[in-house]
Amino acid sequence: MISFISSMRTVLARQQSVDTLRKLHTSAISEAARKGTREKARKKKVKVEVKKVGFIPHNQRDKKINLQRENLHFDDSWKQLPQDNVYVLKYYRWPVYTVANAIECHRETHHPSMYNVPNAPLIVDIELDMRAEKKNRFVDNFQRMAMIPHKFEHGEERKILVFTKGNDEISEAREAGATLVGGIELIKDITNGELLLTDYQFVLAHPNILPELVALRGLMKRKFPNPRSETLGTNLAEMIERFSNGISYAATKDEHQQDFGLISTSVGTLDMDTQKLEENLRSLLLDVDLIRPKREGERFIKRVLLKSPPSSERLKIDAYQYVPEFYVKTANKASAKSNEVEEREEESSEKQEAVAAQ
């Protein structure tokens, strides 16, 4: 009997120890740990499907990818100058030609014995620094028409529509070579749909018809005449001459480098006189310099190259003999102040001499 009771006690003691162990291993912390391991095991069993991606154009790719791109602003000032006339160009600075020498070099390559294109166009590439006056700001893309002293066959169709009132202004515009000239009757024809603005590349106007022309602002949009684009003014003959025979050019920023802008346009043909080509180039550079932002001590025109297709040769010229290299804000003010100081000193000296004479 005693042995039976002792055995029962041992059984109960073991049962109690087992219960305590179960309570220890089935707590909330151990359940969370087991749950985490089970989820990890389930994820390992899931098959990862790799999707094949085809070719994606550069303008549709993820913009977050920051690719290391080459700086488009060319600077070879750190390179040494060549000592002779035979050298590897990439190890030395680009040679700087005069405009006359560059034109003559292109004429030699376009000789009948080589390319045989004596009347090829002379194209100028102007590289710009598009940074504005304020930091992290850039000059917007712009399109202008440069007045040149010597016209040439630019190969573009330029139809000019002129709005003005008065017999003198209408006759002046017609003599200057406008395609179509009129007043209120042209405005009515456009509103009725009898005349299409899309048939004309340029629209000019005299200020005397501006109140009536406001009705067409919604139809014209960017073609609406304004003084900033030099399509609104009193001198119709000069405006028509500019837009019919001038140089049309546009400055566009690079897609990936906002501070780099490029202008590529023609200033004439190689069969023109060298002096006429140089004067056209000077007029173009002066017109481009009008858009220069007010950045003191900075270059706006970085580099100017002359080329003539089908030749791929590009010759660098010195543009700063036609336009100022740097913009100086205080130049005019300083000169004015110095003149005032000199005048005051002269007046004071004259007064002192008068007093001494007395």
TrEMBL record:
Coiled coil: none annotated. The keyword GTP-binding does not apply. Residues 349-358 have a biased composition (Basic and acidic residues). Keywords: Mitochondrion, Ribonucleoprotein, Ribosomal protein. It is found in: Mitochondrion. InterPro entries: Ribosomal_uL1-like, Ribosomal_uL1/biogenesis, Ribosomal_uL1_3-a/b-sand, Ribosomal_uL1_mit. Its main location: mitochondrion. The keyword Ribonucleoprotein applies. One of its GO terms (cellular component) is ribosome. Residues 334-358 are annotated as: Disordered. Belongs to the universal ribosomal protein uL1 family. This is Large ribosomal subunit protein uL1m. It comes from Bactrocera dorsalis.
